[in-house]
Amino acid sequence: MSQTSSRFEVGGISVSPDHYINGKRVSSPQTFEDRSPLDWSLLLGEMARGDHDTARQAVDAAYEAFSGWAELKPAQRAEYMHRLAELIDAKSADIARVECLDMAMLQESLELRVIPRGARNFRAYADLAVKHEERVWSSNNTDNRVIRMPSGVSVIITPWNAPFMLSTWKCAPALAAGNTVILKPAEWSPLTASIFADLIDEAGFPPGVFNIVQGYGEEVGDSLVKDPRVRRISFTGSPETGKIIGAAAAENLVPFTAELGGKSPLIVFADADVDAAARKTAGQYDDSGQVCMAGTRLLVEESIQDEFLEKFLNYTSEHVLGDSRNPETTISPMIHPEHLQSVDGFVQRAVADGNRVVTGGKIWKEDGLWYEPTLIEPRSNDVEIVQKEVFGPVLTLQTFADEKEAVELANSTEYGLAGMIYTKDAELANRVGRAVRAGTVWVNCFLIRDLTAPFGGTGISGIGREGGDYALDFHSDLKTLQILQSSLND
Predict the structure, then answer these.
(1) Phi/psi zone of residue 97: left (φ > 0), alpha (ψ -120 to 50 degrees), beta?
(2) How confident is the model at residue 3 (pLDDT cuts 50, 70, 90)?
(3) Distance CA 10, CA 35 (A)
(4) Is 99 a catalytic residue?
(5) Which of 119, 221, 407, 420 has the highest Cβ tally under 10 A?
(6) CB atoms within 10 A of CB 398
């Protein structure tokens, strides 16, 4: 590997194709292609493809930088993080433009909500770390204090959907806690992670505190998670990959957190505001359904099925499939041809298995990556289309007779990331909200996030929690300091 300064332009924005290790751009002899989902013939760039040696150099840098970063007070680390947040705000339009081309999320959504959330992430965790109060108490004639100690090198592995926001969401608590970081972005959408490194550099973070290694999981990711110097691993992706990373973490007894997707229920009771529920349900097709928390299993009380379905189909018909840069577009293309075929495979198998397609059910046009918003009525609760995550614009519709059946259906998959309930009955909302097994349950709303709240899943949706003090505690080792009272001089 060698240091390099080669860059290319994406949407008029300069992007580096190289890794970022120890404060420098580093190339690799091998590369991988990065293409735009908006036009698959458009090659955005050739990105440096890391290997075992790249991973080792990144861990070397993070390991060497750890002691200096860990020794800083939280307020000193917060100064770097707040500078970074200001830079994200200043460059948010540029970041959005690049991410739209690279991942195809709606540019308007990126500019208004998703990219600015990156700055919020850094401000929130910087301030939480500064404001943290150690637990202090007396017992058995001793004074006790619980102290957070930075744990070491954190490896962060992020998915291809909303890559910039999720990278900041995971890296911010690690840095605030005093850890050094190695970020491995998804190879299908690596560009804004590279911009992230530019902003880290501009904010003046010490060399080695933050590093980026690009490439394939089996080549560079595997080496990162198996390095015994790594002390924390945070991953978002599929359950299958999560199991592999978890096994590697177990070999070195490394704490591991994983968010592994969902198959979330959206429950509509007869007393609900049916129009609001139908409108929000049609919104589950946003970003082509490539949202882990999306309510993809519609559970509707029998007595309002026809009314709900009519309203839902009306709102669904208002969606516009098109270029994500166009403000009128509401449905973006899928991320990659492989993923498009995966989604279509789920639907075609469902049809062959006797499940009824109510609307949609096919690729929108031959020369693009769009998939029609699709609704399927399954023949039973046990079929694949109900039980497995599709991660595309595909919903299922089932009915229930009463509260008991609604909860049983909601809890009938291996997943447990999120859930939604629509009702006007406060007691019903409380009962069902508590009964649904999921890391987050929204009532009469969706995707409202308090950054201090825990986030994660149950079942195969994941291990551990992110958000607020939960994330700071994960990236720390907790120490109890116990001193015999009156045994020390003032």
Answers:
(1) alpha
(2) very low
(3) 11
(4) no
(5) 420
(6) 19
Given the candidates 3.20.20.70, 3.40.50.1370, 3.40.605.10, 1.20.120.550, the CATH classification of the domain at 8-260+457-480 is: 3.40.605.10
Average pLDDT estimate for 346-361: 98
Q: Is 179 helix (H, G, I), strand (E, B) or coil?
A: coil
Domain parsing of the chain, residue ranges: 8-260+457-480, 264-443
Instruction: Name the amino acid, one letter, at 291.
Output: V
pLDDT of residue 488: 86
Torsion of CA 22, 24, 30, 31, to 10 degrees: 110
Could you tell me the pLDDT band of residue 477, with boundaries at 50, 70 and 90?
very high
DSSP string, 359-392: E--SBS-TTS--B--EEEE-SSTTSHHHHS---S
What is the DSSP secondary structure assignment for residue 411, as one 8-state letter? T
As given in the structure block, the two tokens for residue 177 are 């806690």
CA-nearest of 395, 214, 193, 215 to 291 is 395
Cα R_g (the chain), whole angstroms:
23
The H or E element containing residue 32 is strand 31-36
Of 117, 199, 120, the residue nearest 163 (C-alpha): 117
Question: Does pLDDT of 283 surpass 90?
Answer: yes
Mean pLDDT of 69-79: 98
pLDDT on residue 383: 98
**Dist CA 295 CA 442 (whole Å):** 10
Please name the CATH architecture into which domain 264-443 falls. Answer: 3-Layer(aba) Sandwich (3.40)
DSSP character for 303?
G
Structure tokens at 332: 């973006």
**CA proximity to 200, closest of 61, 97, 1:** 61
Residue 292 among the catalytic residues:
yes
In this predicted structure, the answer to whether residue 160 has a pLDDT above a threshold of 90 is yes
SS3 call for 341: helix
Catalytic member of 292, 372, 389, 466? 292
Q: What is the pLDDT of residue 330?
A: 96
Q: How far apart are CA 212 and CA 100, in angstroms?
A: 21
Q: Are 351 and 361 in contact (CB under 8 A)?
A: yes
Q: pLDDT exceeding 70 applies to what percent of the chain?
A: 99
pLDDT digits (tens, 9 = 90+) for 37-59: 999 999 999 999 999 999 999 99
The number of residues in the chain equals 490
Catalytic residue of the set 187, 259, 301, 389: 259
How many whole angstroms separate alpha carbon 404 and alpha carbon 388? 23
